[in-house]
Design goal:
- The structure holds two protein chains of two kinds.
- Chain A has ten helices and 20 strands.
- Chain A has helices at residues 5-8, 51-59, 101-111, 118-131, 147-159, 177-194, 205-211, 229-234, 239-244, 341-347; strands spanning 11-22, 25-36, 40-44, 66-71, 74-75, 86-89, 165-169, 197-202, 214-219, 222-227, 249-258, 263-267, 272-275, 286-291, 296-299, 308-318, 322-329, 333-340, 355-360, 366-368.
- Helices cover 26% and strands 35% of the residues of chain A.
- In chain A, 38% of the residues are buried.
- In chain A, the strands form four sheets. Chain A has a six-stranded mixed β-sheet with strand order 6-7-8-3-9-10, sandwiched between helices. In chain A, strands 13-12-11-14-20 form a five-stranded antiparallel β-sheet, with no helix packed on it.
- Chain A is an alpha+beta fold.
- Chain B has a single domain, classed as MetI-like (MetI-like fold).
- In chain B, 73% of the residues lie in helices and 0% in strands.
- Chain B is built from 13 helices and no strands.
- The two termini of chain B are 31 Å apart.
- Classes of the chains: A alpha+beta, B mainly alpha.
- The A-B interface holds A 59-61, 80-83, 86-88, 90, 92, 94-98, 107-108, 111-112, 143, 157, 161 and B 172, 174-175, 177-186, 188, 192-193, 196-197, 275, 277-279.
- Bound molecules: adenosine-5'-diphosphate and magnesium ion.
- Magnesium ion binds next to α2 of chain A.
- Magnesium ion binds at residues 51-52 of chain A.
Chain lengths: 370, 283
């Protein structure tokens, strides 16, 4: 599902030049971002890059040092968390240990003024429990729930308030792999079903890629690229993004020619490659080229492609539907190659020590800033 | 060694201690309380309920103890809670340790000396003189129940602050954010999250202070000036001055029973307050 912010969506939240410093640590630097109503947006980046800080500013737990946070078109910098129509699923759930599952979920409704009547609260809580598939668990105590169940309670506690924005801070970090996969599907279904805008923070690229409409990649407190998972994967703007969204092979290159719409770079192996980078790059500059493992073809015979490099197979790992090879070229170094099952049937498997060629189709090779 | 053996070994020192230092003396006191006073004091074996029949003569001591011990506990709680809350929740970690040390510093001097200091503060040339200078005359503070109350609250405050501090310090601060996130004002967050989760600390602190206050004798002796005395003072008098061991034993046994009754009522109340939570530690 592609997501075109500018056309289809009404903006529900916005960061305008938002900077946050703690002492002399700059946790977030000049963040600019529009969040569309009903979208599923993820902040992706390694630990410490400022994701949680960005989320906490949306929730109202942190005040921006500079810039503005907008909700529904209004600046909310000075609006306390308890006045914002925003709810959060905390990293370690932060469920109230002294309250039952029911009371945890009812907590938000009970804070509303004028009071919500008991019957309505009971109905809504039951409904929320059903939504997260915990029907009948209301009277349970929190410590009687497993990690996965606690996570659902945390989710129910947030969605029962029908927030304009649901913030999730690494909600699945504490779950085991299998449960995490399940929850990813469920979260995505839930988001579609409820139509609530989700903002997720994660350092797990797979999580971000599989669930989000758009991903906002962060590095050292700054946003480095925002786009749909496909855009980020196919058109990363920098080596950092290409490395963080999916895996890739990177090789150093030097720019030899730089025209308005096309530049030429020379690989360490001598071949010249043309491309159109996202950002203007001057001749003489050191850049890197990136090629995804699954876009490389491995053959025994010299292929007809523009560039084909001789390699020696180093290693083979069987991954089920793919086989991963490590192939070494004298000049460039190691290539990771993913060969799909189907191709394996034609070419047969390669053994360590065997000679082969790597090649790729047009446009597969990207020229990126270092 | 078997699991049982190991458990027994762990419990042995405390068990022997309790047996020798608590159970046996208690038994002795129990037996003595049915005896008689010898001609030159001390104890003469007998079996009579006479000592228990004489209890009403010491009614004032029981009354004072039963009023001032709970009152002192409540006053200490009211003063200690905000302090503990500030230290655990609001205070920056930079200052916390130094302030905590300040709370215990008084323990470095004997309670005797500190209570004497209060004689001067509450005595004629202390606070009353100050009050007189602003036109409030004829206030007597020393040797009143008020003076004793001030003394016991002052003396036992740290014992109340620490358990509450610990329970508030343990409290996951993200719960407070979660509460705010769900639309709760700071005051309601305090009532619905902070307070219930600090009940174990409150319970421990109150229990500690209350039990110790029931046996207190030093502070009433110094600040009550013989006019406000506790059961503890009566015991000192009976055992050490008039050497009426049998009567003293009856008074002591009665105090033990009163304490057991009040503490068990208190436990019932607290466990209801804490709901059916498993992790409410009372002691
Ligand atoms: N309350 C705070 N006080 C001081 N530094 C903080 C605080 N919160 C975050 N930081 C710092 O800001 C940076 C970004 O943190 P955070 O937003 O939590 O990153 P992430 O969620 O991406 O791991 C880190 O260097 C962190 O140490
Ligand atoms: Mg984080």
């Amino acid at each position: 599902m592609s997501f075109d912010m500018s056309v289809t969506m009404q903006t529900i939240a916005e960061l305008r030049g938002v900077t946050k410093t703690f002492g002399n640590v700059v946790a977030a630097k000049d963040l600019n971002l529009s969040i569309g109503k009903g979208e599923f947006l993820s902040f992706l980046g390694p630990s410490g890059c400022g994701k949680t800080t960005a989320l906490r500013m949306l929730a109202g737990f942190e005040k921006p040092t500079e810039g503005q946070v907008l909700l529904d078109g209004e600046v909310v910098n000075d609006l306390d968390a308890h006045h914002r129509p925003v709810n959060m699923v905390f990293q370690h759930y932060a469920l109230f240990p002294h309250l039952s599952v029911f009371d945890n979920i009812a907590y938000g409704l009970r804070q509303q003024r004028p009071h919500v009547d008991k019957q309505t609260i009971a109905t809504k809580v039951e409904q929320a429990l059903e939504t997260v598939r915990l029907g009948g668990f209301g009277p349970r105590r929190i410590w009687e729930m497993s990690g996965g169940q606690q996570q659902r309670v945390a989710l129910a506690r947030a969605i029962v308030n029908e927030p304009k924005l649901l913030l999730l801070d690494e909600p699945m970090a504490a779950l085991d792999r299998k449960l995490r996969k399940e929850m990813q599907f469920e979260l995505q279904n839930l988001q579609r079903q409820l139509g609530i805008t989700f903002v997720l923070v994660t350092h797990d690229q797979e999580e971000a890629l599989s669930m989000s409409d758009r991903i906002c990649v962060m590095e050292g407190g700054s946003i480095v690229q925002v786009g749909s998972p496909r855009e980020l994967y196919d058109m990363p703007r920098s080596r950092y993004v290409a490395g963080f969204v999916g895996t890739s092979n990177f090789f150093d290159a030097t720019v030899t020619d730089s025209a308005a719409d096309q530049i030429t770079v020379r690989l360490a192996s001598g071949q010249k490659v043309h491309g159109t980078p996202e950002i203007p790059i001057d001749a003489g500059q050191e850049v890197c080229v990136s090629i995804r493992p699954e876009q490389i073809t491995l053959t025994r015979a010299l292929p007809t492609a523009e560039i084909a490099l001789p390699v020696t197979i180093q290693n083979r790992i069987f991954l089920g539907e793919h086989t991963e090879y490590l192939a070494r070229n004298e000049a460039l170094g190691d290539f990771h190659v993913l060969v799909p099952r189907q191709a394996e049937l034609n070419e047969g498997t390669f053994n360590a020590g065997e000679q082969a060629f790597v090649s790729w189709g047009e446009g597969a090779l990207l020229i990126l800033e270092n | 060694m078997t699991e049982r053996g190991r458990k027994a070994l762990l419990l042995a020192p405390a068990g022997i201690w309790l047996l020798v230092m608590l159970a046996l003396p208690l038994l002795v006191v129990f037996v003595f309380s049915f005896g008689e006073r010898g001609a030159a004091g001390g104890y003469v074996p007998a079996f009579t309920l006479e000592q228990y029949a004489n209890l009403p003569a010491r009614w004032t001591a029981f009354k004072n103890t039963l009023i001032l011990a709970p009152l002192g506990t409540i006053a200490a709680l009211v003063i200690a809670y905000p302090l503990a809350y500030f230290l655990a929740v609001r205070c920056s970690p930079k200052w916390r340790t130094s302030l905590l040390i300040l709370v215990i510093v008084p323990f470095w001097t004997s309670i005797l000396i500190r209570s004497y200091a209060w004689i001067f503060i509450l005595g004629g040339r202390g606070l009353p003189a100050l009050l007189e200078s602003i036109g409030i005359d004829d206030i007597r503070l020393i040797n009143t129940p008020f003076a004793v109350l001030v003394g016991i609250v002052y003396g036992y405050l740290p014992l109340m602050v620490f358990p509450i501090f610990v329970s508030l310090d343990k409290l996951d601060k993200r719960l407070l954010e979660a509460s705010a996130d769900l639309g709760s004002t700071p005051w309601r967050t305090f009532r619905q999250v902070t307070l219930p989760l600090s009940v174990p600390g409150i319970a421990t602190g109150c229990m500690l202070v209350f039990i110790l206050l029931m046996g207190e004798f030093l502070i009433p002796a110094i600040l009550g000036g013989g006019k406000v005395f506790f059961v503890g003072n009566a015991l000192v008098d009976l055992f050490l001055q008039s050497r009426n061991w049998a009567y003293g034993s009856a008074v002591a046994m009665t105090l033990v029973v009163v304490m057991l009754v009040t503490v068990s009522i208190y436990m019932k109340f607290i466990s209801r307050l804490g709901g059916q939570r498993q992790d409410v530690s009372l002691m």
